[in-house]
Amino acid sequence: MNDKTEELREIFTSVTDGEATVTESQEATRGTLEKDEATVQERLENVITQMRERYEFETPLDDDELRVVARRFYEEESDADVADELDVDEDDVFEARMSLHLVGEEDADEVDLVAIRDREDDEETLADEYDVSTEQIRRYRRVAAAKDESRAANDRYRGEFDSILAEAELSERMASDVREDGLEDATEGMETDVSL
């Protein structure tokens, strides 16, 4: 070390009460794009627990299964596929999604939810008018109720799921891209046309 560096080191040490390293924890994780799976699981568990307490929703699915529902929603899997994976009824998966405010664009893309929500007509009348089944009207009304509930909470929980799962997916994709780019860089210019 030259004199200037040594002088700066002494000033730093005196200012930090003799602590020689302040950035140790930053160095430990420097350069990693991998998301800590345990942290993602804990964060999901926390959001689900908060929602259960606030809305007191009932579902036959346990918290582990609700985490799967949330994850698969962000992986754009259908309720039927998730139901098969969990070995539960498809309606239970749909209801769990609605309870978690995880409404997809396809859940009511061909109907005016506001009109259905605000009308006092019975399900049969609305089913005839919209030329769908009463079960579909019930489903649309459940979607409308989930959207209203989410809006009333300023989409807070949906935002938290976005933060946890969309970021985790992005991080995983970025880590995969970095690995692939690193492999490309490492193999660039290598002779690949080898005959044995």
What best-fitting shape do the alpha-carbon axes yield? elongated
Radius of gyration: 26 Å
Please provide the count of β strands: 0
Number of helical stretches of at least 4 residues = 10
Order of helices and strands: HHHHHHHHHH
Strand content: under 5%
The percentage helix is 55-70%
Give the N-terminus to C-terminus distance in angstroms.
55 Å
Going by helix content, strand content and strand pairing, the class is mainly alpha
Low-confidence stretches: 24-33
For the residues shown, what is the average pLDDT? 81
**Sheet of most strands:** none
Keywords:
single chain, 196 residues, mainly alpha, 0% strand
SSE order and pairing:
Blueprint: H1 3-15, H2 24-29, H3 37-55, H4 63-74, H5 79-86, H6 90-99, H7 113-118, H8 123-130, H9 134-152, H10 156-187
How would you describe the overall organization of this protein?
It is a single chain. The chain is mostly helical. Helix content is 68%, strand content 0%. It is elongated and about 90 Å long. The N and C termini lie far apart (55 Å). About 5% of the residues have low confidence.
